[in-house]
Amino acid sequence: MAEIEITKYAIEQWITQVATGEFHYRSVLGLNQVLDPKADNKLRGIIWELCNPKDPIKTPPIIESVGRRDGYYRSVENGAEPIDFTKLRPKDFPIILPFDLRKYVFIYPDTTIIYAGSKSSGKSGLIYQTIKLNWGRINIKLLSNMEGGREQMYDRFKAMGLDLATLPKFIYHVDENFHDYIKEKDTLYVVDYIDAPEGDDFYLIGAQVKKIDHKLQGLNSIALIGLQKPSTRDTAFGGEQTLKVASLYLAMDSHKLKIVDAKVPVDKTVHPKNMQWSFSYDDEGTAFKNIVRKSSDGFI
Q1: In the chain, where are the structural domains located?
Q2: 222 Cβ contact partners less than 8 Å away, ≥ 6 residues apart
Q3: Residue 239 and residue 218: Cα distance in Å, rounded?
Q4: Residue 281 near residue 275, CB atoms below 8 Å
Q5: Lowest CB count within 10 Å: 8, 10, 69, 211, which one?
Q6: pLDDT score for 1
Q7: Alpha-carbon distance 191 to 28, whole Å?
Q8: For the purposes of burial, counting CB atoms within 10 Å of the CB of 220, is it exposed (0-12), middle (13-18) or buried (19 or more)?
Q9: What pLDDT does residue 4 have?
Q10: What is the DSSP letter of 21?
Q11: pLDDT value at position 2?
């Protein structure tokens, strides 16, 4: 293997032209297999200089430490453009939501909806119902971890009248870095679902939601994200960090749906926060029946 020369210029070029998202310093230039202690120290020194330039005003840093684990960095975005408010788009994103939720909640484009559900609460069924309600009206892409397998997914959609074998392909097997796939305009992106990357680092889930929301900006698209939650609370694993960017945040438990938060109510005099519904669903878990909204005094 030809020796790779470790120079500040080569590393800057790799960071600005190749790096995407977070990276470990040893992955720069593909050096992780060839670093001896001397080369490792040289690389660390250059990385430190790029993080801490002598004159950060004149030469801004191009990377920063992500602080999560030693040796991980991210590129610093320095190319933000001013927003042009002379080019406004239609304010309402034309998504239909189950439980007639659009009567209560206004949805702007470039925003995120969260369905947080406890185990076996019907979260995926509600996600699939949302796809069914909007099929043929909006461009849809489903980014799924395929939990349960393709056969189960096929059967559940078939029970709703959608034959995945004959429809245009719109489902993608994605396990992580969902934000990398947010690219198209006027699209409903559906993510089912985001889990902790390492199985127990739940604090990273909120960061993943934020990355998806960031990628939506300017696309006139929205994201619907499924998250798992404990049955003992309304917020998903990841806690309140998952609440921050959501225009609508739903909590699902067995036979119960609740609006945890809604940023923009349709009727300014009636805020839908904390509205609740009871429901039942069929054996396929995709048809919601006996839907009843609960008032502060009981069901109505």
Answers
A1: 8-75, 98-299
A2: 93, 95, 107, 109, 110, 111, 112, 113, 188, 189, 216
A3: 27
A4: no
A5: 69
A6: 39
A7: 30
A8: middle
A9: 64
A10: S
A11: 47
Look at residues 125, 121, 115 and name the one whose alpha carbon lies nearest to residue 159.
125
Say how far apart CA 234 and CA 212 lie, in whole Å: 21
The CA-based angle 98-100-101, given to 5 degrees, is 85
Residue 61, both tokens: 């840093």
If you write DSSP's letter for every residue of 57-125 in order, what string do you get? TTS--SEEE-SSSTTEEEEPP-------TTS---SS-----GGGGGGTB---TT-EEEEEE-TTSSHHH
Question: Looking at residue 282, what is its pLDDT?
Answer: 81
Interval 25-48: pLDDT, tens: 888 877 666 678 888 899 999 999
Comparing CA positions, the residue from 226, 210, 246, 249 lying closest to residue 112 is 246
- What tokens appear for 109 in the block? 């484009």
Q: How far apart are the first and last CA of the chain?
A: 73
pLDDT at res. 264: 96
Beta strands in the chain (DSSP E): 22-24, 63-65, 72-75, 112-117, 139-144, 171-173, 187-194, 222-228, 246-253, 256-262, 276-281, 288-295, 298-299
Q: Give the Cα separation of 230 and 237 in Å (integer).
A: 7
Identify the three-state secondary structure at position 238: coil
pLDDT tens per residue, range 158-189: 999 999 999 999 999 999 889 999 999 999 99
Options 3.80.10.10, 3.40.50.720, 2.60.120.10, 3.40.50.300; CATH of 98-299: 3.40.50.300
In this prediction, what percent of the chain has a pLDDT beyond 90? 59
75 touches 62 (CB < 8 A): yes
Helix (H, G, I), strand (E, B) or coil at 293: strand
3-state SS, residue 154 = helix
